Design the sequence.
């Protein structure tokens, strides 16, 4: 039986995450979305997993039939030769341009980290990035959830002091530049946001 996923009205990347979970569970599925971006993103991810896709559009409703092939390729990412995967956050938003959009993208990125694999081993927050870890941050729930999975969150103490936020830390561990530098230099892979 084909699994049905109704992803209409869901923000990016939820339709993709829901579809990927179905594929990983060994299910063929029909994904219902209501916009072209979601259609394209679901199709691209399904194809990257070795699945076939067929799209039908009718009355503003887009149905994507996702079928797993017999020779479905497993999406195994290269493991670094040595050392952890480290993600660094020098800012409280993602990208440059519009600050409001950057904050929306940061929330989506951190939420998505909790839904995908592999996850980073360590996340480092410095400069304006420390604001993500303090009370009032819109991403605290996601950061706490990531921390519960075993991801280490290192937060620059000097930066917290600079912004007057040291007593407002809500996620992660206050760290220092020695620990941050050592972690970055021993990393197998560093991802800068």
Sequence:
């Amino acid at each position: 039986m084909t699994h049905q996923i109704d992803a209409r009205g869901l923000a990016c990347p939820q339709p993709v995450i829901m579809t990927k979970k179905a594929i990983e569970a060994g299910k063929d599925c029909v994904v219902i979305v209501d916009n072209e971006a979601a259609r394209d993103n679901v199709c691209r991810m399904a194809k990257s997993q070795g699945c076939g896709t067929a799209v039908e559009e009718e009355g503003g409703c887009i149905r994507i039939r996702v079928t797993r092939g017999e020779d479905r390729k497993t999406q195994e990412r290269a493991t670094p030769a040595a050392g952890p995967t480290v993600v660094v956050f020098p800012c409280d938003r993602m990208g440059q341009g519009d600050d409001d959009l950057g904050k929306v993208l940061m929330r989506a990125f951190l939420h998505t980290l909790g839904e995908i694999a592999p996850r980073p081993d360590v996340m480092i927050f410095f400069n304006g990035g420390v604001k993500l870890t303090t009370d009032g941050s819109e991403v605290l729930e996601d950061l706490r959830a990531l921390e519960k999975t075993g991801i280490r969150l290192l937060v620059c103490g000097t930066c917290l002091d600079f912004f007057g936020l040291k007593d407002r830390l809500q996620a992660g561990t206050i760290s220092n530049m020695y620990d941050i530098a050592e972690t970055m230099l021993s990393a197998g892979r560093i991802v800068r946001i």
Summary: The CA atoms of residues 32 and 63 lie 5 Å apart. The helical segments are 14-24, 36-48, 99-113, 140-148, 157-162, 177-185. The chain has a mean pLDDT of 90.
